[in-house]
């Protein structure tokens, strides 16, 4: 038992006051307001606030294990995450999810897992596993699982897919909320999507979208992550106003939000969704709160969005400094600067301002890359003629969307060649679950003048994806990834470098700083080869994400994301 | 049991969502988020928010009974008040407090009473009763009493007055919080004042004062009432900054408030303290919330200050729409306009948008005015000479403070005369508890050119106070008050008018509209006689409030509020 006095931020009554705090067995036993006088002061130097909770994140995107994630998160005042182990589930199924849970349990940090609802993401790709409704039920039974993870298959929900609806019903059976994911889904489609009880959404990119969902009963997660930053679109309010066809139908919240800018009640959570290692080392929700305040959100509202609100929604015994709750708290210098001085979980100090006071146990890495070494001819596209017209994936820097383009390309010995003038490079997805197939196509926008980059992080099935100038270089880069049991790699005649991600081809046992440093080196090398994308490996990883339009590639071929069917590479 | 769907404002998670509400025996049995779709909508047209709670008010200042107060408060969305029956206690003691409680119980409204701690306010006046520590204990034992009322006797606390400290200790014995009242008390004095566990203050008039108290553990009540409006000084922040001598001593909140204007956590409640009938009919906390929003306070923070925060502090089972709480709620058209559509208490509709659905039982009026009729010579001040110099109370419009002035006045037949040129009128306090004494003096600032105004509302002892031009007119006005068993009255050769307040000389059994209308008529008449004060009867009532400097009058004589002793009227 420990007892001390401190200024606390009370997120229930939205105020600060000095209090006596007694903690027993990791739980607040006493939280009593006290008075302080001129001569004495409270024991704690700084302000005691509840630890932050990220209510939607995929830890795999940080390329580190849960334990390593915890070690970096506590530096930023995060004491809990609601995490969807969707990526590892696509590679390793339930075994992967359980490995995450097992690793997470070994560190003093609150991991609240959700049961991945959409594995695989589509039938147009080869994944390492399938989670059917029985598998989902197996997970939902676990105490460590607090919700059914984001239901990304909105067409399946809307069109009454039986297996999808079985999963949704199971969440109700086990009394666990269902997270949503419904970008731009609206009107009657949204109604059908929500009907099974889906209660959150983190895909709103403009205030009108958030408003419609809010009115229909969805709790709004404002995303401030590495891949998507929606805060500006939501908190700035400017856009969307003119899109409203029948404002009167939007009901009473409409007036509050649009006529008077009383938008506080519109938003529920701030989440990161994906946090890449280079971003994660800089900060987490601590930075998001300050960013929100910069947009005019009240500091207490912003803090509520990452403390009491997630706790209330997911039924977690934390998120507020109140008697009976778990003693997860952070000492900050002030609300203004929000510098994290110390972090406590269950009453124990886990970060003392300098060092993290627990170690990250390693996850045993089993090779999940079941692919034979590749030869250059695996990446050749043959055409019988001097020149041909091809469909091209045109990527947009910092966006998951792609555009459909075409290009005329020359052949050499019957093999279609990349073209530096048009910036059309070769792209391929190498099946890595034992099938050994390779799908080849062309891509525009990467800017590489030579060499190749490859990665086993390729949403959502995480086959090996590669972009390069020549087949030879692509084979070299891919083989480097295979040798490393997964990871990201760059190959050129000038340098060869790689970050091994031996855990499911997604994560490293190393710490976030090491991983971030290696990612930075790889970025610098890609830039040295001519790539001007901010985050070339991330952009490449989303070239395989079929559910986002307009043109993508899976291990099975070039994919038309609008028609939702495969398409030919060579047009004529 | 009733069940319906509505958009609710959830003050715990600071958000709005549609929910299914089930109420049983006046308690929320179910509050579950639901989804709403394009074609259907929720049952309730409007937004359901928790009913407002005024955490510090003296109902007597509204000149109506608790039951009548309830009838007007529910029109404004108020469902509960923490009220200090301090005024009636000064007149009638415990019997008066119990009469208030008894009347309050007969209407469906949440009256949370506090036990008056300072009756009488000083030993320099005659009150109708004394509440010693035993009396306070008798009250603290009652379930209807939720706290020890504002401890106004800060010198008594600071100097260790035994009886005062006995009362404070009793609050701890009965586990009830202690309200404070410590205008401009600071530094070591504030420390001594707070030491016995006084936990609120509603007297802060500038942000620096609030800041010091907040840092020392006081919950800050921002006052927005008829007599005192501190919201501008507190929420506008502008002033006070330069007064800080040693900013670093103010600690961490200092930086948040002054460097970045993050002032949300500084304030806890919005209260009205006193609400005169003419103000009360216009609005209550509903208007205060809008006013706060106008000053830049987040709407959710403002609403928390009159819902969950008072409930949390005073341990009341209301203030939020959550399972297990009492179903006290209001339907508003929108947060923007905050127009009250309907008000419910314990699940029952008490205001349907047009009519209040309960009656106000009368309080039996016993005459508490024990004073013989007065004759003009009761108000004469004699001086043997043609002219004399006198001390004069100089009132300031809208302020409880007064200034010390002097004037040279002529005599007529040995009686000192008022002087219209200098605007020096006669003022007197008529003891009304059987002693039949009259204290006479002079006052500046009322502007009456003829006639007199009198009132049995005269803080805190509520003797009869009168201001007039001639002794004859003063006697007429006072006798009118005596005939009416108390109240306010105006007398001149042109008109005689009065508002009887037969309950303790403080309250009417009539409704707020009637009382407000009569007050307005009396104000118009006073203006017609030359008085330019905004609220002449209120200003007059505070001329007897000895605890506020610099010069006041009690039934025992002219009082020097700085030296805290009596002073002579005639100087030489």
Task: Write the topology of this structure.
The structure is a homodimer of 572-residue chains.
Chain A: E1 2-10, E2 15-24, E3 27-33, E4 47-50, E5 52-57, H1 66-73, E6 78-83, H2 86-105, E7 110-115, H3 133-140, E8 145-151, H4 154-158, H5 162-173, E9 178-180, H6 187-194, E10 200-201, H7 207-215, E11 219-223, H8 231-235, H9 252-259, E12 269-271, H10 277-280, H11 285-294, H12 299-304, H13 308-314, E13 329-332, E14 340-345, E15 348-351, E16 387-395, E17 402-412, E18 415-416, E19 424-430, E20 438-444, E21 452-455, E22 464-468, H14 471-483, E23 487-491, E24 496-500, H15 512-528, H16 536-541, E25 551-554, E26 557-560, E27 565-566
Parallel strand pairs in A: 1-4, 5-6, 6-7, 7-8, 8-9, 10-11, 11-12, 16-20
Antiparallel strand pairs in A: 1-2, 2-3, 4-13, 13-14, 14-15, 16-17, 17-18, 19-20, 19-22, 21-22, 21-23, 23-24, 25-26, 26-27
Helix pairs in contact in A: 3-5
What is the average of the pLDDT values of chain A?
A: 94
Question: Helix- and strand-based class of chain A?
Answer: alpha/beta
Q: Could you say which overall geometry of chain A the principal axes of the C-alpha atoms support?
A: globular
CA gyration radius of chain A, whole angstroms: 25 Å
């Amino acid at each position: 038992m420990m007892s001390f006095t401190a200024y606390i931020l009370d997120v229930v009554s939205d105020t600060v006051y000095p209090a006596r705090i007694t903690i027993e067995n990791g739980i607040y036993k006493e939280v009593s307001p006290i008075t302080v006088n001129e001569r004495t002061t409270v024991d704690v130097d700084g302000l005691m606030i509840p630890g932050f909770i990220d209510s939607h994140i995929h830890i795999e995107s940080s390329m580190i294990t849960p334990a390593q994630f915890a070690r970096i998160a506590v530096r930023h005042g995060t004491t809990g995450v609601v995490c969807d182990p969707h990526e590892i589930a696509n590679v390793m199924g339930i075994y992967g999810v359980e490995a995450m849970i097992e690793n997470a349990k070994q560190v003093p940090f609150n991991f609240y897992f959700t049961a991945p609802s959409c594995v695989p993401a589509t039938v147009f790709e080869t994944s390492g596993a399938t989670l059917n409704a029985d598998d989902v039920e197996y997970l939902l039974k676990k105490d460590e699982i607090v919700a059914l993870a984001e239901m990304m298959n909105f067409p399946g929900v809307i069109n009454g897919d039986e297996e999808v609806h079985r999963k949704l019903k199971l969440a109700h059976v086990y009394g666990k909320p269902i997270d949503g994911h419904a970008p731009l889904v609206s009107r009657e489609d949204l109604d059908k999507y929500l009907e099974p009880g889906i209660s959150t959404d983190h895909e709103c990119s403009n205030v009108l979208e958030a408003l419609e969902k809010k009115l229909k009963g969805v709790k709004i997660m404002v995303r401030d992550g590495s891949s998507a930053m929606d805060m500006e679109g939501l908190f700035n309010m400017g856009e969307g106003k003119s899109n409203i066809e029948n404002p009167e139908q939007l009901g009473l919240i409409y007036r509050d939000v649009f006529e008077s800018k009383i938008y506080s009640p519109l938003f529920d959570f701030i989440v990161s969704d994906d946090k890449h290692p280079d971003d994660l080392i800089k900060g987490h929700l601590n930075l998001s709160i300050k960013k929100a305040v910069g947009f005019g959100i009240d500091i207490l509202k912003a803090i509520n969005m990452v403390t009491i609100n997630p706790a209330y929604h997911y039924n977690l015994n934390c998120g507020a400094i109140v008697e009976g709750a778990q003693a997860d708290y952070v000492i900050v210098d002030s609300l203004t600067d929000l510098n994290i001085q110390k972090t406590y979980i269950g009453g124990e100090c886990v970060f003392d301002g300098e060092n993290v006071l627990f170690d990250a146990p390693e996850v045993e890495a089993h090779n999940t890359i079941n692919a034979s070494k590749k030869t250059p001819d695996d990446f050749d596209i043959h055409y019988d003629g001097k020149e041909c017209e091809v469909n091209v994936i045109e990527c947009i820097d910092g966006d998951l969307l792609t555009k459909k383009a075409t290009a005329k390309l020359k052949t050499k010995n019957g093999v279609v060649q990349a073209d530096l003038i048009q910036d059309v490079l070769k792209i391929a997805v190498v099946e890595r679950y034992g099938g050994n197939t390779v799908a080849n196509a062309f891509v525009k926008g990467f800017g590489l003048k030579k060499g190749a980059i490859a990665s086993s992080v390729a949403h959502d099935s995480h086959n090996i994806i590669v972009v390069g100038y020549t087949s030879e270089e692509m084979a070299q880069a891919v083989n480097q990834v295979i040798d490393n049991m997964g990871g990201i790699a760059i190959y050129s005649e000038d340098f060869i470098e790689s970050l091994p991600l031996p855990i499911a081809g997604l994560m490293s046992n190393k710490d976030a700083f090491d991983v971030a440093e290696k990612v930075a080196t790889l970025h610098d090398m890609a830039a040295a080869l001519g790539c001007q994308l901010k985050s070339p490996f991330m952009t490449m990883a989303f070239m395989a994400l079929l559910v986002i339009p307009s043109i993508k590639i899976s291990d099975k071929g070039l994919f038309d994301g609008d028609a939702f069917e495969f398409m030919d590479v060579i047009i004529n």
